[in-house]
Design goal:
Helix content: under 10%
Number of strands: 11
Largest sheet: 7 strands, mixed
Shape: globular
Distance between the termini: 40 Å
Strand content: over 45%
Length: about 120
């Protein structure tokens, strides 16, 4: 019954911005640590950002200064604002719920995943 549905991806020019959304059902997102991961073609899944139950955040080095993770508790929705997009940001972006309290961006610490939303950045 737990479902995560991502949206907001698309094709943009380098330097542009996107806001990705992850709407959750079956549980309350504020009660769990939530994260964004991404996976480019032929690459391993990479942690992008994580937010804890109390609002602490951590970001992957590759998006430092360009990404902001947040949530809207009333809408039970997680967001990822991406600015100054680069071609290397091209990937499928996934929303995930952690198994336990964590600030780690390791995929084995997350047990529920959405289907992903594609981001493509052109130079």
């Amino acid at each position: 019954q737990v479902q995560l549905v991502e949206s907001g991806g698309g094709s943009v020019q380098a330097g542009g911005s996107l806001r990705l959304s992850c709407r959750a059902s079956g549980y309350t997102t504020s009660n769990y640590c939530m994260a964004w991961f991404r996976q480019g073609p032929g690459k391993e899944r990479e942690g992008v950002a994580v937010i804890t139950t109390e609002g602490r955040t951590r970001y992957g080095d590759s998006v430092k200064g360009r990404a902001t993770i947040s949530r809207d508790n009333a809408k039970n929705t997680l967001y990822l604002q991406m600015n100054s997009l680069k071609p290397e940001d091209t990937a499928m972006y996934y929303c995930a719920r952690a198994r336990w309290y964590t600030l780690a961006l390791n995929e084995n610490e997350y047990n529920f995943w959405g289907q992903g939303t594609q981001v493509t950045v052109s130079s």
